[in-house]
Structures are given as C-alpha cells and as structure tokens.
Design goal:
By secondary structure, the chain is an alpha/beta fold. 33% of the residues lie in helices and 20% in strands.
Length: 178
C-alpha cells in the first residue's frame, strides 16, 4: 500500500522512517543544521573556554564541556552525591584543560556555586562567568538587524540560544557551500 507517498517528505520521515528529528518543520534549530556540525573537522584555535551545568538529585548528571574556539574538545557527564563533589570534578577538568574561562549556570541549583568557589582553598587559574539565564540580554550590537541584543531578546537565555542557533546555521551553510 502506497498511501503515504503523496503525503510529503515530513509525513514519510515521521510515520515510515520513524525519524524523530522530523517531528515538525518549525524547530528552533533544525536537525539538519545540528547533523552538519557533528564530526565537522575544524581547527581547534582560539579561546579556551569551559562550561559547567550542575545536576540535582535523582538520575540527572552534571555536564562539563570544554572548547577551543568553535571546536568542542571534551564533554563529560558525571553524578557525584553532592553539588560540591560535582563542582570539584568540573574545576579539576578545567585545570586539566587549561581553560581561560569557566562558565556556569548561576541560576537555580547552580546559584550556590560562587559561594563554594569563594570559600575553597583551590587556586583558580581561570576567570569565572556565572550566567543567569533570566538576566537581561547584552548590549552587543547585532548585524544586520541594527539593534542591540537587549532590544531583540527577552533575556540572556534567549540571546544565548539564538547565538547557538546561528552557529549551527553558519556551519550548515558552510558545509553546503552557501
């Protein structure tokens, strides 16, 4: 029976191929853009930066990510019993990676991270950047819109998501020769 053949590529992908990345064509970051970035060979040149998202209780895991310029060099997940143990592990990873900047989620469960770092005896060799997703977007000027980020985005989280989306878009276009 060929009843799906006239339904279009989206229905075929969803119903026949069971491609969950094709759940709709209104995705904020299209799956094809993400696929284009996976295993894309690009030189690891630029700033050494790391990010840390601490987990709470249960089956959740903390995640540490390290990148050089646009290249993700390491991503590790782990789940220790306490937030302090998770933080210590992430800080050790940052030292090992010789990161210049350590960004962390400073909202919610990540809120106490600054206090833990402040009272530790560990000598930090990198800058700290506590990111509060609910804070205002930056004053960075956006091209070609001709506006500041704070005039376009509701908050810092929206601005960061848009920046990530644009990186995926540019990679996709580059790989397609656009």
């Amino acid at each position: 029976d060929h009843e799906f053949l006239d339904k279009g590529a989206l229905v075929v992908a969803q119903e026949i191929l069971i491609d969950y990345n094709r759940s709709g064509d209104d995705s904020f970051i299209p799956a094809d853009w993400v696929k284009a970035a996976v295993d894309f060979e690009i030189p690891a040149e630029g700033d050494r930066q790391s990010g840390f998202d601490v987990s709470g209780d249960g089956d959740n895991k903390s995640v540490y990510t390290f990148r050089i310029g646009p290249t993700v060099c390491r991503q590790t997940e782990f789940a220790y019993a306490t937030m302090q143990e998770n933080l210590e592990h992430a800080l050790s990873c940052a030292d090992e990676d010789r990161t210049a900047q350590f960004s962390y989620d400073a909202s919610g469960i990540g809120g106490p991270i600054w206090g833990h770092i402040k009272f530790t005896e560990r000598k930090l060799r990198f800058n700290l950047d506590g990111i509060k997703g609910n804070s205002s977007a930056s004053e960075r000027y956006l091209f070609p819109e001709g506006v500041q980020a704070k005039d376009k985005f509701f908050n810092k989280r929206a601005e960061n998501c848009w920046n990530l989306r644009e990186r995926f878009r540019k990679t996709f276009e580059h790989r397609r020769g656009v």
